[in-house]
Amino acid sequence: MSLLKAGVCAWLSIGPLMLAQAPHVTDTKVVDNWEEKGHGKEVLRKINGRWWTQDNREVTPPGKGGFFWTVDSKPGSSQFFHHRPFELARAESLHLWMRREEVEAALGPPNRASGRDEHGRWFYYAANGVKVNIWFVDDGVLGDAKYETVGEKAQMVASVERDLNGQDLFKLLAERASQRSRERQAQRSSDMRNEQAARMQAFRERARSGSSGARYTTAQPSTVLVAPAAPESAAKKRIIPADAFAGITLGATRDDLLNKLGEPNNRFAISGDDGTRESFTYDLDSGETVVIRLLDGKVVKVR
Question: Average pLDDT in the 206-231 region?
Fold first, then answer.
């Protein structure tokens, strides 16, 4: 109820000024203190056609032939904000499912409020004694709004009644809850698909860059055959001096290998769960063909 809280803060900040503008009291009545027997009298005030205690709780007078005045709430159970009379015609700007901030923007801050924010009630009092009772439901949206006149049956605000169009409010609430559940499930599924796609894209980029961190998630490896740079080089094999080959040791990097021996006559790579494996084939001047194997860019086997 952020807008209402902001309104309350503003009310507190101008409290001394507003106290000088006392509510318009049209009648008073002294009754026995019904909440604390034996503790004297209570002075009730009539404001905007309704009776009020000194701590601004609404009191219903006794019915015909009755004796008891009935206070509508316990001390501290509701919030009171002001006694400014409400312009009743503005209530017809209300609509089903309006949020609290939208109601406040349309009607202004309420005279009173009670209950929790998500399922609370706001009350607006017109000068002629008619009260507009607004009920917030579900996740804090307007579910009902009624005109209440003392001694008469409450009537729904016409604009809200048109929105309902004869439908049961609680059935509509159940449908809204089901729809939100479906939307949340769809959003979770979409988030999971997007996350999986992002991971796969990152994997492909690492694989293209030759990063040693690239891994396939399946047990089956994929093989990439690397063709010679040009057809003429395939037709004419490069011959490597045997003593140059003898200088290649285990643990040498790919760059060291290529700097010393140059491009191989044949090369292929295979990536799997254990890393990226490569095989370089060279022909020596001794007539021997040798294979150098690498794992993640380092020599692990010679010949």
Answer: 54
How far is the C-alpha of 250 from the C-alpha of 259, rounded, in Å?
15
pLDDT in tens, 175-206: 877 777 788 888 888 888 888 888 888 888 88
- SS3 track for 127-163: CCCCEEEEEEECCCEEEEEEEECCCCCCEECHHHHHH
Q: Which amino acid is at 87?
A: E
Q: Tell me the pLDDT band of 3, cut-offs 50, 70 and 90.
A: very low
Q: Please identify which residue in the block is written with the tokens 């740079």.
A: 229
**Are the C-beta atoms of residues 237 and 280 closer than 8 Å to each other?**
no
CA-angle at 56, arms to 50 and 57, nearest 5°: 70
Confidence of residue 81 (pLDDT cuts 50, 70, 90): very high
So what CATH class is 222-302?
alpha beta
- pLDDT recorded at residue 106: 97
Cβ proximity of 51 and 29 under 8 Å: yes
How far is 140 from 98, CA to CA, in rounded Å? 9
Check: CB of residue 77 under 8 Å from CB of residue 91: no
- C-alpha gyration radius of the chain: 41
- Dihedral sign, CA of 155, 158, 163, 167? positive
Edge-to-edge strand ranges of the sheet holding 131-137: 78-80, 112-114, 121-125, 131-137, 141-148, 155-156
**Which letter does DSSP use for residue 62 in this model?**
P
Q: What is the largest CA-CA distance in the chain?
A: 127
